[in-house]
Write a structure and sequence with these properties.
Largest sheet: 3 strands, antiparallel
Order of helices and strands: EHEEH
Strand order of the largest sheet: 1-2-3
Number of strands: 3
Bound molecules: zinc ion
Shape: elongated
Helix content: 10-25%
Structural class: alpha+beta
Low-confidence stretches: none
Number of domains: 1
Length: about 80
């Protein structure tokens, strides 16, 4: 099977408010307030094309953190040439 040079990084899996959601006092959000490892970014993916172009699907309120995740997950040298 041939592989292509396209790479994808999943940047978030939560609904649009993320976890913890602002103003929510449910058990899950309360736990995430206390433990950052339980926090989830809103759903988003980054695609790094064969031509080096970076494509972001669903820019969210956490876009700055998600671009950092994309940079490290996709092995990019930095974002200044992509943003
Ligand atoms: Zn909640």
């Amino acid at each position: 099977m041939d592989s292509c040079g396209v790479r994808v990084a999943i940047l978030g899996v939560a609904q649009d408010g993320g976890v913890p959601q602002a103003g929510c006092g449910c058990e899950r959000c309360s736990a995430a307030q206390l433990d950052p490892s339980l926090r989830l970014h809103p759903s988003s993916i980054a695609i790094l094309g064969e031509d080096g172009g970076l494509h972001l699907v669903e820019a969210t309120r956490d876009v700055s953190q998600q671009l950092w995740i994309a940079s490290t997950s996709l092995g990019m040298d930095g974002l200044q040439t992509y943003v």
